[in-house]
Amino acid sequence: MGIYSGLVFGAPVAFSKASKLKGLDHSYPSGHTLRQRAWNEFKPDVMKAPWGQSVIYDRYSYIDLNNYKWRLEGFEWNEIREKAKELDKKIDDGIIPVRKGPLRIVEGIWLIDVDGQQNIYVLVTENGLVLVDPGMEIFSTKIIEQIQMLGYQKSDVRWVLLTHCHVDHAQSASFWSENGAKILIHKNDFNAVATGNEITAWWTVHDEKDRYFPPVKKDLIAFEDGDVIDFGSLKVFVCHTPGHTPGSSCFYIRKDEKNMLISGDTIFHNGKHGWMGHPYVDYEAYINSLWKLKNFAVEGKVHNEEGRLMVREPIKYDILMPGHTAISMDMVDRDINKGIEIMSYTIQERKKGNDYQWTEPYSFFAERIYSKAEPIRIEYR
Q: Which phi and psi (to 5°) does residue 72 adopt?
């Protein structure tokens, strides 16, 4: 594996299997009171899914959850659609509260919520802030406002860590680069962000005026599968998970005694997966990536008492932090297993000649339970 070198605040940077990324010490003397208050004030509302999972719901997943319940109660889908419209209006009218950022996930890990379903994360380190997937340029003002609510400033953002190159995750990377942040992305998505080419999917943006992707012209750094990015008080383990894009990656971190998976668009709550409407998507790579996450390990245990066989034990994730929608606060193994089920079904349908690309899992599984469908045949890898 190669080593990628650059400069971060005058210190050399090297990415390898045990790579280091370090910046200047920063004590944050200002904003201390705000940070203490933020810890107490910005607590999320955690709800229980029907199967007992603890979840921070966004508005759309909350509606999906109710669709699931209504279907199992026997409502037909035309009735459910009307009930969902009523629920959506109650959310708009403020009758039912929905999450608003910033929200504390664990100590030093924050959710920035800009549009009700886009998940942007702030990781606090001793050397500055890491901003994960800051999304569209139009989100930048809201991101800065919420960072300030936490007691920090725009200038405290030292790094932008990208799960992949798509416009809804990475369009603002150039903005943050121009404001002094280093941009980190997997080498297979590096060129897309450096040139703003069509792999960034800028052409999918609904509003025509936002259909562009400014190339990142400086401080763009590539990482690889297996790299460990050392931010001083926080280490980020890279797991390359292609399928959605060639360079899609997930990040494992250990924080506040929790195993946390930042998953981008590779796996969402309840097994939802990323949009697959691109000419370069790879379904086989996608399901391989899900199995890779399921078996991902960074520090193992000896299972053979004689010490002759070293087997790394897969990580048991405590929290799933996806790029969109709900955040799972436990039972992440269920999310990954459900994702494997859905992708198995998708691959099998495509082999039959059906142009099957994506499904909403709450409705998908509710219908299968209600109709007593046969179990999905799992595609093992």
A: -70, -20
> String of b and e for 226-265 (b: at least 16 CB within 10 Å)?
bbbbbbeebbbbbbbbbbbbbbbbbbbbbbeebebbbbbb
108: in domain: yes
Task: Report the candidate in 140, 91, 138, 134 with the shortest Cα–Cα distance to residue 116.
Answer: 91
Which residues, in sequence order, are bridge partners of residue 229?
Answer: 236
* Structure token digits, residue 359: 């499904």
Q: Decide if pLDDT at 318 tops 80.
A: yes
**Under DSSP, is residue 131 helix (H, G, I), strand (E, B) or coil?**
strand
Q: Would you call 310 exposed, middle or buried from its count of C-beta atoms within 10 A (0-12, 13-18, 19+)?
A: exposed
Residue 149 and residue 33: Cα distance in Å, rounded? 11
70-81 pLDDT per residue, tens: 999 999 999 999
pLDDT digits (tens, 9 = 90+) for 120-162: 999 999 999 999 999 999 999 999 999 999 999 999 999 999 9
Task: With respect to residue 66, please indicate whether it lies within any of the assigned structural domains.
Answer: no
Residue 9 has pLDDT above 60, yes or no: no
Region of residue 173 (left: phi > 0; alpha: psi -120 to 50; beta: else): alpha
CATH number for the domain harbouring residue 241: 3.60.15.10
94: left (phi over 0), alpha (psi -120 to 50) or beta: left
- Torsional class of 223: left (φ above 0), alpha (ψ -120 to 50), beta (otherwise): beta
Distance CA 56, CA 61 (A): 9
Q: Does a structural domain hold residue 64?
A: no
**pLDDT exceeds cutoff 50 at 24:** no
What's the domain range around 254? 4-58+99-370
Helix axes 140-149, 32-41, angle to 10 degrees: 100
Give a yes or no: residue 307 inside a domain. Answer: yes
Number of structural domains found in the chain: 1
Residue 322 preceded by cis peptide, ω within 30: no
- β-pair partners for 111: 103, 121
Looking at residue 232, the DSSP 8-state letter turns out to be S
Torsional sign, CA 96, 99, 100, 103: positive
